[in-house]
TrEMBL record:
It holds the Pfam family Acetyltransf_3. PROSITE patterns: GNAT. InterPro entries: Acyl_CoA_acyltransferase (IPR016181), GNAT_dom (IPR000182). This is GNAT family N-acetyltransferase. Residues 4-176 form the N-acetyltransferase domain. GO terms for molecular function: acyltransferase activity, transferring groups other than amino-acyl groups.
Length: 178
């Protein structure tokens, strides 16, 4: 298998992104990423607007309760396997309570290859460069694969919180120890 390439989305990724959206549409898992809902409106015609929006969100949050964020996509053999969002202001909205600094998802066809673990490993130095020494990541209690990805990156379970009937595990990664 080829090496995973993790990078920001480019205009030339339009076809791969449309395939990625189609892959998510087949997902029967209860652990879908929130972004998938917004992908339903995307097409080749408005893909450039989406790319521009993701780049703009790196420095400007459209809502005062949202953090600025950098979104990276994981490519394998030219296909998008997953995405990871690095959120920079954990004090915004629900992030400190349960959302966390990092959100990620692996498309159904690419699960079981430790790509989430690799994406988290990729993201952690981005926080170190910004002098963020403690990174919070959460996962549904029942999502064992996600929890293992976090734990493989030195995530320490702080607690489990109830959010509207869902049990969410809150992990912290201490980057000063890495």
């Amino acid at each position: 298998m080829s090496e995973l390439e993790i990078r920001r989305l480019e205009l030339s990724d339009a076809e791969a992104f449309m395939d990625y959206i189609a892959n998510w549409a087949t997902d029967t898992s209860p652990f879908k990423i929130d972004a998938v809902k917004s992908y339903a409106e995307l097409s080749l015609e408005n893909f450039s607007d989406y790319v521009e929006k993701t780049h703009r969100e790196e420095t400007f949050a459209e809502n005062p309760d949202w953090s600025t964020a950098t979104k990276y996509f994981a490519f394998i053999n030219g296909q998008i396997a997953g995405e990871i969002s690095c959120r920079w202001q954990i004090e915004k909205g629900i992030l400190l309570e349960w959302g966390g600094h990092i959100g990620y998802g692996v498309a159904p066809d690419f699960r079981g290859h430790h790509f989430a673990e690799e994406m988290v490993k990729f993201a952690l130095p981005k926080y170190q460069k910004r002098k963020i020494s403690q990174v919070m990541i959460s996962a549904d209690k029942e999502n064992l694969a996600s929890r293992k990805s976090i734990e493989a990156n030195a995530g320490i379970l702080e607690n489990i919180v109830d959010i509207d009937g869902d049990e969410i595990c809150r992990y912290w990664i201490n980057l000063e120890e890495q």
